[in-house]
């Protein structure tokens, strides 16, 4: 998902597979293998040996164990260090993938390992709560625990989330933060919606918080976290390069006078959400048709089988919808929170 | 390379990585790991477990050992068997990758393993001779040995190649064959060119041989064999579906009255070569600029270092040139050989 999205938008991608699975874990089962940390390090060495480590950006996603997290942290620090003489020439997006679909993907010791490396990241993208928020209270607990571990703030509502973001800026000096898929409390008769809340730090460590609200599609998709992260990488770079001089500053942090809603991070997120809404709405429409056909056959299946059928029916229709990626139509705008 | 090309042209791809390397072998060195045959089989089992094995086409590329070749042969036969009640619903393109850039990639016992499975393939695409033809006589020997092993015909010129193709059709009943990158003997003053020679079997096992001649770019690229194979997959399917009823026949073999130059295989190859010439010409132009810059610096490097620099400079510019893939402009037409 992430590799294809970045490639189709013009990035040359060196994919370092931290797992090789037959399918994503939305199916509840998979064959394959987690890449050992030593192999990740070895592959990175291979890139260095042939001078193929001149990366402009890095996106780290699913890292299945603490050792791999540490291996990636070493890579990231080395790449950052190489770029010290050229501010802004290397940017690291850290997507702390920990679980999805109600399952914890990673070993328990991954959370503290992330805590050690998070201060080096330029943008963190905590995993989405997504449609499963509420439906999968376990995941919600993981994510909130993660934030709480990092920020020491107990998150129960938008105010405490803002407080947590503030603490993350202040304590870890993380330049950019985006939290995705925060469910909105819909009033009676209102359509359910999801919010994305983000912030870029100011020179004195304060947040600039914006939010973007999008309609919630009543459907569970797998891979949308990777899709969001990969699109953010492309669009944030684009937005940074559209602001004179910004791409040559450390971590692409906008001048203090830039308002929350005018941040490159906010502009990027608007485009990203437009692309995602396009692809996911089409995915849902096709998936609904497939499920209708299945129900029309009136065969009885058990819960496990139904999950397989549904997972396949709602596989994100990415390759046929490149137009949504390339030409997003912005409908949902960032607002000050 | 292959995965991205197919995805960007609208295919949903399940990539079963038979190797995980830090880089392609054009660099002369790489870190990483060959996937053991048991893991390939395991991944396929994972796809079956979740009903994700409903493939329309399969492209098999680099298989690093005889055991993996056998594992893939079992997969292919099973997928073919599943499709027996629906002729044409599964099509297997076998690209017998054995070497490139003067190096044998695979174990010696791979050649006989291929021999055992080749009769089940719908299209075989022997690896390209490419620019290294002549420059790397070793590779030429491997490829010719492969043909000779299969066909029993010693290939020295176009006539013996035609004879070999005829034998492959007759002996193994391979429906479609394409041999790429056959250097043309240029007359004095003529631009050097490469030919692609292909054939689709007739109902009585005879060949219909066509050739397409393209200008030879004086440059070595890595990954063009995968690019050719992936593009052929997309364009051959498209051509088969453009001929009424053909996609519902076994192996998409055209009726006997269809002339060589009008074969879907020929039409597909024309489009494929147009895309490739576009991408590679742009790659060469950019690569030449990079090398000019390098030479202008006037630093002394050893042969190994120069190879790394050249390999990187001439990395195929794929992601920025999607237009060549999507809208190929046909300039070189198939001719009867």
From TrEMBL, chains A, B:
It comes from Coleophoma cylindrospora. SUPFAM superfamilies: Ribokinase-like. Signal peptide: none annotated. One of its GO terms (cellular component) is cytosol. Its EC number is 2.7.1.35. It is an enzyme of class 2 (transferase). Transmembrane segments: none annotated. This is pyridoxal kinase. GO terms for molecular function: ATP binding; pyridoxal kinase activity. GO terms for biological process: pyridoxal 5'-phosphate salvage. Belongs to the pyridoxine kinase family. It comes from the Eukaryota. Coiled coil: none annotated. Keywords: ATP-binding, Kinase, Nucleotide-binding, Transferase.
């Amino acid at each position: 998902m992430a590799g294809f999205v970045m490639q189709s938008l013009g990035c040359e991608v060196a994919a370092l597979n931290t797992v090789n699975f037959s399918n994503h874990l939305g199916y509840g089962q998979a064959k394959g293998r987690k890449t050992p940390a030593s192999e990740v390090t070895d592959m990175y060495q291979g890139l260095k040996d042939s001078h193929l480590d001149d990366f402009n950006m890095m996106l780290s996603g699913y890292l299945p164990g603490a050792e791999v997290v540490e291996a990636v942290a070493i890579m990231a620090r080395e790449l950052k260090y190489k770029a010290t003489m050229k501010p802004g020439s290397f940017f690291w997006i850290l997507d702390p993938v920990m679980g999805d679909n109600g399952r914890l993907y990673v070993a328990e010791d991954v959370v503290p390992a992330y805590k050690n490396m998070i201060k080096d990241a330029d943008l963190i993208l905590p995993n989405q709560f997504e449609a499963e928020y509420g439906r999968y209270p376990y995941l919600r607990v993981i994510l909130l625990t993660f934030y709480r571990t990092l920020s020491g703030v107990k998150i129960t509502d938008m105010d405490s989330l803002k407080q947590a973001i503030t603490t993350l800026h202040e304590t870890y000096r993380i330049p950019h933060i985006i939290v995705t898929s925060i469910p909105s409390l819909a009033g009676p008769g209102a359509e359910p919606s999801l919010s994305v809340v983000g912030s870029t730090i100011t020179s004195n460590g304060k947040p600039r918080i914006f939010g973007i609200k999008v309609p919630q599609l009543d459907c569970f998709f797998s891979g949308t976290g990777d899709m969001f992260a990969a699109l953010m990488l492309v669009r944030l770079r684009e937005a940074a390069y559209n602001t004179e001089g910004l791409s040559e500053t450390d971590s692409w942090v906008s001048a203090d006078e830039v308002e929350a809603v005018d941040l490159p991070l906010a502009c990027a997120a608007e485009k990203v959400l437009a692309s995602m809404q396009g692809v996911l709405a089409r995915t849902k429409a096709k998936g609904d048709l497939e499920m209708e056909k299945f129900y029309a056959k009136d065969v009885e299946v058990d819960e496990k089988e139904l999950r397989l059928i549904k997972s396949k029916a709602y596989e994100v229709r990415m390759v046929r919808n490149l137009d949504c990626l390339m030409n997003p139509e912005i409908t949902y705008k960032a607002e000050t929170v």
